[in-house]
Specification:
With about 190 residues, the protein is of the alpha+beta class. About 20% of the residues lie in helices and about 20% in strands. The strands form 3 sheets. The chain has a 6-stranded mixed beta sheet. The longest helix has 13 residues. The radius of gyration is 18 Å and the shape is globular.
Amino acid sequence: MVWGWYERSQFGDFFPNGDYVGWEEGLKQYFDEQMSAEQRAALNNWHVAYIGEVARKFREDRGVLEPHECPLEFRMEESRKSLGSLLHLTNGVRAVDATLHAIIEKLEPGVHQFWPLRITTPMGKDYPVPYSGIIVRRYIDSFVPEQSAVHQVSEGSTSYFANNPTKKGLWQSDGLEACQRRRPPLA
């Protein structure tokens, strides 16, 4: 049995509305205090360009995130009673709960980059389930549409939607090579 994920496009259990606490400020401090003059000049001496470059690492293969580049807290704008096992957050960050993290590490040990990411309520209280940020480092192209419960976005398109995703945002197919974890399009 093969599993794939289905990303939601509206705010909710899989795409909570919110932002990172202290992340941009920490990147600005690094830019101002630790980055060399040559590195700053390459970014037009503008810390916002650096923040943009770091954010691109969440969506594109641009190397390993350095410890100071990892957001450590995502504060939701609204309290949620439940969240999915896989979250899509601001700036293209993906986060997984501890259970999905363990499954991914068991299947592909050491392949993907994880870091602790606190998910908090609007009042700063920790969400009861621990999450980790994830940078997917390997995509397996083994999708066979004919063996999958999907439909094509439009004729000739290479994009497909799951017919009946489950509550946790995952869909299941019985084919051995029935899913694809497609690399997100480059921004």
